[in-house]
């Protein structure tokens, strides 16, 4: 999103002046009301889901309600998966389009494991293009080459070939997801949930049922077309606006609206696609694992008449905090406990796209994406009569849930910084083609072909292509990462292989000594939104060797270059024994 800034040269005095002049007060964010009495529990379940399954055979609603037979106390084991990725025409919301699917499923298969397990996924690529699968949030400590980042930690799995990802999860748990990390492929369907259990989780005894709710913005046009348009002068830097949104891969769409869409498809369409339905058994408590697996839209999630008690952010247990709405940006996850303590009825689940984050209007889009909670005993329905919370969705800018509300359950102060890295994010239209590209300092990332930066680093190379911004971090020490966002858009940045401490955020540019920092048990997570014309200060411990992307998770922005790589612990990386079959894929 670049409407204002892209017309101005980044480092020009105009922008600096604009940054210094911004003093708009933060919108008053919704604070939780008094905690509702914890009397009962919420359970989502899948009776209506069976109906959906009959009309949407590519959707497996059952996998989103975690099976209670899964033993979280089992001895460490190997979790094997066998996946084939292929293209298939399906109609998640009633309108047909070709999608890229794992084992013919959308969303793709759940990966469920315990801390201490090994995860082994054989991926066979039956697409016409190369692919790679990234395990979002997994530390991959000592197995950086299993991170699945195309052009960084691997060459793509060539069409017709297989590669087996193989890694352990020794020291983390919570809610994660997996997705293609090649071109824009995940936008076309290569996504799925990844849940890690542990007996050490903080809130295990506070819920009865465990449910996954994957949100995604959704486009009727395949992503290569949208990305070519975005990276052409025609878009003027405006991102494609979604045609719809999905909850666990389902939603209704009014087919007559296709002709009014920004990109009409005129594809076969039936205006009868079902929404997801979550069955609640009165008295139970439901852990809802929210995942924004979309590519652009920021959602505000709520359930009518049901308070959300947030207990996890990006795999980090939190001290419970009650809210009515959870803003969730691309790549982020939250768990919230919901109590099934309301009258037996149907209630709307709402995932409201934040239209303030969009540059354009798509007349085909109903930005209020919905699913239903259905209480046992209430009539089965595709609509509810419930009302949205009275207080408005969060106003204005596309901000994360206020970091000061999220206090990690395992208290850890941010260690003092040993070294500081400053990065400037911007969109600039300085290429000959007059296309707006995403820059970290002066580099717009373009993925390498036929090699990966990790392989180059492993061989001892220290000067990389000019399209690669590589920040080398030689020692195990605490890095303070100061990120200035010189763009009018907000950017959910994801650091691979780490959880970061969020020690400071604010408007304007970071001013050392003046911008306030909080190092007392600050929020820790792996995906954090840089606000419009603002700064974010993060800290992380550089104790995981490898080549780690730090990138905007808004897919068009990544495709426009908004990525930097941390080259952590070079001597350990040079000693990596990278499997030969991984390097062989570079010769395809
Ligand atoms: C759980 O295990 C029991 C006993 O083996 C079995 O009868 C039941 O079908 C299983 N439930 C699910 C949901 O898999
Ligand atoms: C394969 O990749 C090319 C280049 O990105 C793209 O134009 C094409 O649409 C892709 N094919 C499919 C089927 O996704
Ligand atoms: C996974 O890696 C482990 C440890 O290197 C190895 O013992 C095992 O054979 C591998 N499994 C597969 C299926 O490649
Ligand atoms: C679908 O959209 C058309 C055109 O806006 C509108 O006239 C019609 O009422 C809509 N149908 C439903 C069921 O909402
Ligand atoms: C939901 O909450 C509203 C507002 O508090 C209340 O008026 C309504 O009766 C509740 N609905 C049900 C079905 O309990
Ligand atoms: C990025 O640019 C800023 C401002 O010029 C500079 O202070 C910083 O060191 C640069 N960062 C890197 C990694 O080059
Ligand atoms: C890291 O080590 C390399 C070579 O060993 C050196 O050139 C570079 O300056 C070091 N970087 C820092 C930040 O100390
Ligand atoms: C990675 O492994 C090293 C060595 O075992 C350990 O010191 C470090 O804390 C680990 N880091 C993460 C993020 O797991
Ligand atoms: Cu972005």
Automatic annotation (TrEMBL):
What Gene3D superfamilies does this protein's entry cite? Cupredoxins - blue copper proteins
* Matching Pfam families: Cu-oxidase, Cu-oxidase_2, Cu-oxidase_3
Can you say what this protein is called? Answer: Laccase
Which keywords does UniProt give here?
Copper, Metal-binding, Oxidoreductase, Signal
Q: Which family does it belong to?
A: Belongs to the multicopper oxidase family.
Q: Which InterPro entries match?
A: Cu-oxidase-like_N, Cu-oxidase_2nd, Cu-oxidase_C, Cu-oxidase_fam, Cu_oxidase_CS, Cu_oxidase_Cu_BS, Cupredoxin
Looking at the record, the residues that make up the Plastocyanin-like domain are 85-200, 209-371, 456-568
Q: Which SUPFAM superfamilies match?
A: Cupredoxins
Q: Cite the PANTHER family for this sequence.
A: ADR239WP, MULTI-COPPER OXIDASE
Q: Does the keyword Repressor apply?
A: no
Signal peptide range equals: 1-18
